[in-house]
Design brief:
The protein has about 350 residues and is an alpha/beta fold. It is built from eleven helices and 13 strands. It is globular and about 55 Å long. The two termini are about 40 Å apart. The structure holds nicotinamide-adenine-dinucleotide (NAD).
């Protein structure tokens, strides 16, 4: 296994990991350890090039710094990616990657993200202690997705309150992009609250199953971002809110689980100009890392910690919306400023 340092002036430490024997290439990016050890999931997906994988890990790890700070967790921001089809992953690749994580001596903690499961985390945990999201054992927190979905559901209610004057979702129409771990749990919660759903996924079987399970209307993956609805919940990939898609949106609000929904900072302003209320992604989707944090921080009362932090997160989102409205700017801008101010505060001894 070969580890090479990569120069990235915006980050504390970035490494490229290669294991020829198992055919592994991946990256680990530590954006900041200012608030604590860097924590953020491991993603495996097909990337067209190493440059694309590196760009993703740099963006995602920065997002984790913001997310962990927004959730008031004593954790910094980091992320890891493995290049390749998650369906073809091998235990040897996971073990090699775990050795690289171990070499960082606790400056980076991993957990599952797209393409990874609690079972994969268990394979890695046999090599290094710096793995969370385990299926069993002391402090094991398991799959974070249901808690992520709970946080997003709360964020949609708060967004509805600020956009429509009521958090009640009965009769509201929500368009959900992506029916994976997060999107599926979210659909369940939305349906139970009486919302009407339109869904899309590139996996046709999931779409058919959602139509049956939730009475959801379905559209093709390239149509979901232009569906006329009250709220759009992006729960698949990043960069979906961009110069091309924003003018075509036919919703009043966006609140979903995908990381890095805004392609650029200018896209937050573009949403604001269109009068579309945007729940900053790293606030809306912080439930998962809150759940993972119980394992890293070895919290005895997991449910109590999660509930308390989710309630605080709701209050943070409310405050962001109120301040954004007062100043007539987009909530993404206020969220970034909120995080920046938390990071400048001296840490408790
Ligand atoms: P997942 O891999 O389980 O699900 C993603 C789903 O999106 C899949 O069903 C996939 O087929 C679908 N998809 C991919 N491209 C699509 C497209 N172009 N159009 C429609 N559907 C598409 O991943 P997940 O764990 O559900 O995560 C979803 C998003 O939420 C990701 O951006 C992830 O980083 C973010 N997120 C996840 C968690 C968590 O707890 N899992 C926490 C925070 C953020």
């Amino acid at each position: 296994m070969n580890v090479t340092a990569i120069a990235a002036p915006t980050h504390e430490e970035v490494i490229r990991v290669e294991d020829r024997a198992s055919g592994l290439i991946g990256f680990i990016a530590i954006h900041s350890t200012e608030l604590g050890p860097a924590a953020g999931g491991l993603r495996m997906r097909h990337y067209p090039s190493e440059a694309a994988a590196l760009e993703d890990v740099l963006r995602l790890s920065r997002g984790m710094t913001f997310k962990n700070a927004a959730a008031d967790l004593p954790l910094g921001g980091g992320k890891a990616v493995i290049m390749g089809d998650p369906k073809a992953k091998t235990a040897a690749q996971l073990r090699a990657f775990a050795r690289a994580i171990d070499g960082l001596s606790g400056r980076y903690w991993t957990a599952e993200d797209m393409g990874m499961s609690p079972a994969d985390m268990a394979v890695m945990a046999a090599v290094t202690p710096y793995v969370a999201g385990l299926p069993d054992g002391n402090f094991a927190s398991g799959d974070p997705s249901p808690i992520t979905a709970r946080g997003i559901f709360n964020a949609i209610r708060i967004t509805a309150k600020h956009r429509f004057g009521s958090p009640v979702l009965a009769g509201r129409h929500v368009a959900v992009q992506g029916l994976g771990h997060v999107g599926w749990h979210l659909c369940k919660l939305l349906r139970a609250a009486g919302a009407d759903l339109t869904v899309a996924d590139i996996d046709a079987a999931r779409v058919a199953w959602a139509a049956q399970s939730f009475g959801a209307a379905t559209v093709a993956p390239d149509e979901i971002l232009a569906v006329e609805a009250d709220v759009l919940a992006p729960c698949a990939i990043g960069g979906v809110l961009n110069a091309e898609t924003i003018p075509a949106l036919r919703v009043q609000a966006v609140a979903g689980g995908a990381n890095n929904q805004l392609a650029t900072e200018a896209d937050g302003a573009a949403l604001h100009q269109r009068g579309i209320l945007y729940a900053p992604d790293y606030v809306a989707n912080a439930g998962g890392i809150i759940n993972v944090a119980t394992e890293i921080l070895r919290i005895e009362d997991r449910e109590g910690f999660v509930s308390e932090k989710l309630t605080a997160l709701d209050a943070t989102l409310e405050a962001i919306f109120i301040r954004a409205a007062d100043r007539a700017v987009g909530p993404d801008r206020v969220a970034d400023e909120t995080v920046a101010s938390k990071m400048q505060r001296p840490r408790a001894a």
